[in-house]
Amino acid sequence: MNDDKIREEINEIIEADIQLALNDYIEKEGPQGFEGQKLNAKVSKTEVDKILKEYKKFKKKERSNLGQVKKLDLVDQHGRQL
After folding, report:
1. Three-state SS for 81?
2. What burial letters (b/e) apply to 26-46, b meaning 16+ CB within 10 Å?
3. Which residues have CB under 8 Å from 2's CB, separation 6+?
4. Would you give the distance in Å from CA 69 to the centre of its chain?
5. Closest CA to 2 of 45, 50, 52, 43
6. 27-59, pLDDT tens digit by residue?
7. Which residues pair with 81 in a beta bridge?
8. Rounded distance between C-alpha atoms, residue 51 and residue 58, angstroms
């Protein structure tokens, strides 16, 4: 996946989660002056970029040789995980 597609997916997930929390709060507490208005959630580009950077770092480790060994769930001669 390219960066733009990943960034777009991260943004959609975060916005949906925030929007659900806002909707739940409004249903629970009442509109409190927001009648007829729709609240929208927006996420800053820098925060999405931080998450993208962490995601790339995680994926890089996952693809490394040590990451492949961890996937195999190998143990040494004493039964300890490698």
Report:
1. strand
2. eeeeeeeeeeeeeeeeebeee
3. none
4. 25
5. 52
6. 787 766 556 566 666 778 888 888 888 988 988
7. 75
8. 10
